[in-house]
Design a protein that fits this description.
elongated; four-stranded antiparallel β-sheet
Length: about 120
């Protein structure tokens, strides 16, 4: 399983840096600010938020036009989503990741359809 960190913006000066990022696997995004004191960088401020829809948008954009392949990160992630939904509906515990199948449940990752619709409405960046 791959865990992506998407860095969307970096602002640098000799004594300070600001980094905007997204970690879509857990739906978190934020900004942290680094400051340089005596030649060493340290975190001065860290603001973090959560957005499940932002994570789905990221994966929809990432996987647009890419067919699912058995054994891929996409297949694993798709099976995790599928199991999470089935577990919630059946009120059961989620299946451990290593026990999930690594075969594709379909050809196009589910979040791609929502991303395409979002794009067609002109709402993407």
């Amino acid at each position: 399983m791959a865990w992506f960190v998407y860095i969307s913006k970096v602002t640098l000066s000799p004594e300070q840096a600001s980094v905007a990022y997204q970690t879509p696997y857990n739906g978190k995004y934020g900004t942290f600010t680094l400051s340089k004191t005596d030649g060493n960088w340290s975190i001065q401020d860290h603001q973090q938020m959560h957005s499940s829809s932002g994570a789905r948008f990221f994966y929809g954009e990432l996987y647009e036009g890419v067919a699912c392949r058995d054994g891929s990160e996409m297949a694993t992630r798709w099976n995790m989503y599928k199991d999470a939904l089935e577990a919630a509906m059946a009120r059961r515990a989620r299946t451990p990741e290593d026990a999930l199948p690594s075969t594709c449940p379909g050809k196009e990752f589910p979040d791609v359809a929502a991303y395409k619709q979002y794009k067609a409405m002109g709402l993407n960046k």
